[in-house]
Write a structure and sequence with these properties.
This protein has 525 residues and is α/β, with parallel strands linked by helices. The chain is built from 15 helices and 27 strands. The protein folds into 3 domains: 124 residues, Rossmann fold (3-Layer(aba) Sandwich), CATH 3.40.50.980; 222 residues, ANL, N-terminal domain (Rossmann fold, 3-Layer(aba) Sandwich); 101 residues, ANL, C-terminal domain (GMP Synthetase, Chain A, domain 3), CATH 3.30.300.30. It binds adenosine monophosphate and 2,3-dihydroxy-benzoic acid.
């Protein structure tokens, strides 16, 4: 958490307003907050449902500070669940729908979760089967509960609810894409997170007339706060939920619900553009004003297609669940919008670009991005040892991104120093996948690297050194093995090369750089 004097300054400067996220709800307001298929939930009803569910959660013994792993797809119930937990001061731990037993089991165990809230069946997967790894957590299901507790049965009388959290308290734990063996959890407070959502709503010029399509998973930091669902609730606008982000689902929703703004990762932008360019007659997408693209770098050629094909502005968003978010601004010159990843939200976001020894590089040159500010965390949750590496002694977060800052203050992402694969916006920690591979009896050693991909930006390539005498390793076998271990599908390697030994660096570590170079040589050869 922030040092006291720094926190005081953020309050004095008006960034931290002393409110909790629950104040975004509007009791008695009949305007529509959330549209989920043919269900429409007003602000007033959302407020009432969140409170009655808070009573239900309290009845199960859930109280302030307890962790609750929440894994819900884009469903109306998501909103009552998170606002009920916010009301109690219990901390949602935001899992993604793609997570499977390996991730959910870890989140439940590591956070000592008292409950796991999930859905019945989504995209052909029965989420209730994850109950087996939920440890001591009570399993609560939105939809058909099977043998578990039905979310819809929990609502109670909110009259006797205990006092809620303070604005400086933790509100939830968000996930980091990470670069370490186990995913790190990101503790965000009501004060800091509300600031980022509010300021983002202003930057994106949201009003009560805004209609935001949630196409990416609602629990992702981008969809939640950049400006996302919380920014929209702050502005009094309307959220339309898409169950899946494919063009066949999303384009008709944009047309019928008169969506004004939505957010995607680069591969989805490409998919939508191709679908719209190939559609005759065209759907009426004239309500759309802004297509936000972030999570991975957007190529300037794709960015340039957005206005002609979709008839709206493109906004680049370079953010991270740890805090710092950069936006190109609406109305910025085309050159800026196509070629940069934006500039920070806050005048008090501190940006340092440094070399390998933490010395500032000359202005305009590429270096490691370090940042500190009114909505950037000072440490991961219960990860003291890792925090000593991930943060500088004076509290700057080491983003692992390589950037340069232009004279106009806009950032350009030039690469990455962290051992991570950014697969179309889905982050994969190389070490996490390697650790799973190392449990395979036929694997002596494993190294996971990113390879360039036209569509996803990057894909994962795994190199393995087989164990002598073991059955031959094939990609289908290894993929099957990782699926059985319950790893989320997006983390399962796309390609495999079996080698006799790994190239090593001067100090004897596996050289990922040489592995990547070897791959390029093979591909170009
Ligand atoms: P996480 O820390 O898991 O929330 O992931 C944030 C990371 O995603 C950033 O540190 C970047 O590496 C990457 N990222 C997000 N948005 C962009 C973008 N617009 N361009 C390039 N990289 C991005
Ligand atoms: O990739 C991200 O994590 C991200 C991208 C855009 C993010 O957290 C955000 C905006 O807030």
């Amino acid at each position: 958490m922030w040092p006291d004097d720094v926190a005081d300054r953020y309050r004095k400067l008006g960034y931290w307003t002393g409110q909790t996220i629950g104040t975004l709800l509007r009791p008695g307001d009949d305007r529509i907050a959330v549209v989920d298929g043919d269900r429409e939930v007003s602000y007033g009803r959302l407020h009432d449902r969140a409170l009655s569910l808070a009573a239900g959660f309290a009845g199960l013994g859930i109280t302030k500070g307890d962790r609750v792993v929440v894994q819900l797809p884009n469903l109306a119930e998501y909103f009552e669940v998170i606002f009920a937990l916010f009301r109690l001061g219990a901390l949602p731990v935001f899992a993604l729908p793609a997570h499977r037993s390996a991730e959910i089991g870890y989140f439940c165990a590591h956070t000592e979760a008292v409950a796991f809230v999930t859905t019945d069946v989504h995209e052909g997967f029965d989420h209730r089967t994850l109950a087996a790894v939920a440890a001591d957590a009570r399993v609560i299901v939105a939809g058909d509960p099977g043998e578990h507790t039905a979310l819809s049965d929990l609502h109670g009388d909110p009259a006797g609810l205990p006092p809620g959290p303070a604005p400086g308290d933790l509100a939830f734990l968000q996930l980091s894409g990470g670069s370490t063996g186990l995913p790190k959890l990101i503790p965000r407070t009501h004060d800091d997170y509300l600031y980022s959502a509010r300021a983002s709503a202003e930057i994106c010029e949201l009003t009560a007339d805004s209609v935001y399509l949630a196409a990416l998973p609602v629990a992702h930091n981008f969809t939640m706060s950049s400006p996302g669902i919380l920014g929209v609730l702050h502005a009094g606008g309307r959220i339309v939920l898409a169950r899946r982000p494919d063009p066949a689902t999303v384009l008709p929703l944009i047309a019928t619900e008169r969506v004004t703004i939505t957010a995607v990762v680069p591969p989805l932008a490409l998919l939508w553009l191709d679908a719209v360019a190939g559609t005759t007659p065209r759907l009426d997408l004239s309500s759309l004003r802004v297509l936000q693209v972030g999570g991975a770098k957007l190529g300037s050629t794709v960015a340039a297609r957005v206005q002609p094909v979709l008839g709206c502005q493109v906004q680049q968003v370079f953010g991270m669940a740890e805090g710092l978010v950069n936006y190109t601004r609406l109305g910025d010159p085309e050159e800026v919008v196509l070629n940069t990843q934006g500039r920070p939200i806050s005048p008090d976001d501190e940006i340092l670009v440094v070399d390998d020894e933490d010395r500032p590089v000359p202005p305009g040159e590429v270096g490691h991005l370090l940042t500190r500010g009114p909505y950037t965390i000072r440490g991961y949750w219960r990860a003291e040892e890792h925090n000593r590496e991930a943060f500088t002694p004076d509290g700057f977060y080491r983003t692992g991104d390589l950037v340069r800052v232009r004279p106009d203050g806009y950032l350009v992402v030039e690469g990455r120093a962290k051992d991570q694969i950014n697969r179309g916006g889905e982050k994969i920690a190389a070490e996490e996948v390697e650790n799973h591979l190392l449990t395979h009896p036929g694997v002596h050693d494993a190294a996971v690297v990113a390879v360039p991909d036209e569509y996803l930006g990057e894909r994962t390539h795994v190199f393995v050194v087989p164990r002598a005498g073991a059955e031959p390793l094939t990609l289908p076998r290894l993929r099957g093995y990782l699926r059985e271990r319950g790893l989320a599908a997006y983390k399962i390697p796309d390609r495999l090369t079996v080698v006799g030994a790994f190239p090593i660096t001067g100090v004897g570590k596996t050289s990922r750089r040489e592995l990547r170079a070897a791959l390029r040589a093979i591909q170009e050869g």
